[in-house]
Amino acid sequence: MKPSTARLLAAAALAAVLALASGVADATVVTTCKAAAGSDGRVDYDFCVAELGKHHDSPSADTWGLAKVAALTGVVDADNAVYDIKELLAKDGADARTQAALARCQELYDSMGFAFAEAQDDINNRDYAAGKEKASSYSVQIAVVCTA
């Protein structure tokens, strides 16, 4: 996985985490992503809008609905990253160090996908604090480990 892709996926995960706690009145994809990008430099505003905005529920979602969309987006992005890493590991030519790093990132993204799925359950139950905690558990690790 290219470092830029890993950074963008970590940023999308971070945006989803921040969406859970944004507290933005009348949250929309644009206001949530603007708040997320303004509060954390790792969040790419355009990527955030693109990722959260492509879900069919986003245009009409309230804060709770947008938090659910964000968690689902985190699951999808994490699963896509795992798939991309598997493709990279299947190619010949990577040295042992690169393969080990990719394998570690694959584990982190896989765990992050499960964490976002658990966050989705918490959000469905309107337990935002628990959802935020679960969603944020891997974002920082991925941003550090998988973009180095």
TrEMBL record:
Keyword flag 4Fe-4S: no
Domain Pectinesterase inhibitor span(s) in chain numbering: 29-130
One Gene Ontology MF term = enzyme inhibitor activity
List where this protein forms a coiled coil: none
Report whether Nucleus shows up as a keyword of the record: no
Q: Where is the signal peptide?
A: 1-27
SUPFAM superfamilies in alphabetical order? Plant invertase/pectin methylesterase inhibitor
Gene3D superfamilies listed in its UniProt record:
Invertase/pectin methylesterase inhibitor family protein
Which Pfam families does this one have?
Answer: PMEI (PF04043)
Q: Which UniProt keywords apply?
A: Disulfide bond, Signal
Instruction: State the similarity comment.
Output: Belongs to the PMEI family.
Q: Which PANTHER family match?
A: OS02G0537100 PROTEIN (PTHR35357)
Q: What is this protein called?
A: Pectinesterase inhibitor domain-containing protein
Q: Which organism is it from?
A: Aegilops tauschii subsp. strangulata
